[in-house]
Amino acid sequence: MRIFTSIIGYLASQAQDTLPYHIANVDSNDRIFVGNDDFKRETNQLLDFCFDQVLEIIEKLNELKASYFGTLFQICILAANTLIAHCQITKKIEVFINKMFKMADTYLTEHNKLPVSA
To answer: Taking the model in full, what pTM does it have?
Structure first.
């Protein structure tokens, strides 16, 4: 899971039109790939793939959710926070973030209903 959220953060940073840092006499990705539609398309495809993998992990754990409420909560919060921290918030991403927060709330509520083991 952390691999996918780390990849999302990296891809989102590389997809920026202007990177926040530059090294003297080195052409960085924002200069090399600026306006390159193939680069943007491939980056978006990779981001979509990573999000699909995150959702697949959630779906698989959700099948056995009684054993994974705490883990599911953490995954949903991590996914939402990754998007907030690294991505430009579009309507599509906003919907995904809201879905992750709602799911996290549900998993936390169910987790808190479980008896505390000694």
So the answer is: 0.75
